[in-house]
Amino acid sequence: MVKSLKMNPHHAVPTLKDGDFILKESRCMGTYLADKYDKDGCKLYPKDICTRAKVDEGLYFDATGFYSSFGATVVCGSSQQEEMAL
Ligand SMILES: N[C@@H](CCC(=O)N[C@@H](CS)C(=O)NCC(=O)O)C(=O)O
To answer: Domain locations in the chain?
Structure first.
């Protein structure tokens, strides 16, 4: 089995490897990297729970609907989108 597939059995990119720690979801990678490296002020992923919740809201909106709808419309095109609806 190829190394990248061992790290990410979802057979997708991106994959984040930080030492022995591996993440397979892009939005989670973003928040992990922001928490790890944005030391002063956490502007990318704020510590304040209400501000952070608004960032999470956008990430979850993207993960649970927008990304797949956008992909079906823009990447697949309308004919494949119609097939997917069947
Ligand atoms: N939920 C995953 C989705 C990743 C994803 O869909 N990646 C696409 C490229 S943008 C991919 O690798 N697809 C596999 C393929 O096209 O064979 C994430 O957000 O990291």
So the answer is: 1-42, 46-86
H or E element in which residue 27 lies: helix 26-37
Looking at the domain 1-42, which fold is it? Glutaredoxin (3.40.30)
User: For residue 26, which atom of ligand 1 is closest to its CA?
Assistant: 20
Percent of the chain with pLDDT over 90: 51
Q: Please name the residue whose Cα sits nearest to atom 12 of ligand 1.
A: 12
Query: For 50-75, how does the pLDDT look when each residue is reduced to its tens digit (9 = 90+)?
Result: 999 999 999 999 999 998 898 888 87
Supply the pTM of this predicted model: 0.81
Residue 13 alpha carbon to ligand 1 centre in Å: 5
The residue whose CA has the least distance to atom 17 of ligand 1 is 12
DSSP string across 53-80: HHHHHHHHHIIIIIHHHHIIIIII-HHH
Question: Mean of the pLDDT values across residues 13-24?
Answer: 95
